[in-house]
Amino acid sequence: MIATTILSRTGIIYCFLLLLLSSWNAAAQIVPLETFINDMVNRHGFNKLELTQLFANTRVYNSILKIMNRTTGKPRPWYRYRSNFITDRRINEGSEFWQQHAAALSRAEATYGVPAEIIIAIIGVETIYGKNTGDIPVLDALTTIAFHYPRRAEFFRSELEEFLLLTREEKLNPRLPTGSYAGAMGLGQFMPSSFRKYAIDFDGDGKRDIWNNFTDAIGSVANYFHGYGWQTGQPVILATQVRPEAINSLLSAEFKPLFSLKQLKQQGLLFQDERLDNQLGMLIDLETELGTAYWVGFENFYVITRYNRSENYAMAVYQLAQEIANIHYAQTY
Fold first, then answer.
1. What is the distance between the alpha carbons of residues 150 and 25, in angstroms, rounded to a whole number?
2. Each residue's pLDDT tens digit, 114-123
């Protein structure tokens, strides 16, 4: 009885120490706002008084923190995820978007090698072709997560830094840009770091406007994909089969196309087309209503996941793109 009590108390103390350590680690991820401001002053030459006044007027969104906690749950199965994005509305409006912005899309495809339908599908999935770009001040969204959500604080502090730099570079009032709950901006929902690296002035008016300028948004999405290595004219993803005993080992590999199809076949992939043996690929599993389906994702599929690291997301973009292209080319020829 005494031993049981001691063990019980020891367990309680151990759990308490673990909880304390966890809380300490979480708190350690939060850098004080004043430290961040001083860092921006010292490293980038910002005015301390102006930044202090700017942040004094920011709002903390509890709704954002609730969403961030909710997004840590188990992802939806593919067949449910698909039904939200591969819809008649998105397909038809995507076809209309192509007609309305044909010149910019054609020039983007010629310049960066990214198919028009992929560019359209990204904008369609992200914002329904600009109809839902988000109405939360980007400054508030980034500040909320950077200083009130320890698990992702470091990443969002970095994005907040990038945001302040881009607003200075673009001569924007940092209070004005709006976006998603996570600070993603414009028709293509670029994070600030992506804006600084990939957003372009595609119409030559001297501004990089991805909020209201469809030409700039189209060129910027194409540039983003080009920057991440889109391979013009190469496959994205193809259905396949796999030997049952090889499934776990193939799926446990790093989420990146590191092996040629010839090597994957040697490991248990059942893919018939020998013409693609030298292509790098990876096994993708997606849950359908009839069971698990298997696909080979190529480098271009991986590039789509650089926009959102999700197999479901990349497949939704790809399939929406195919549906839009089917309508477009049927109407054209």
1. 9
2. 999 999 999 9
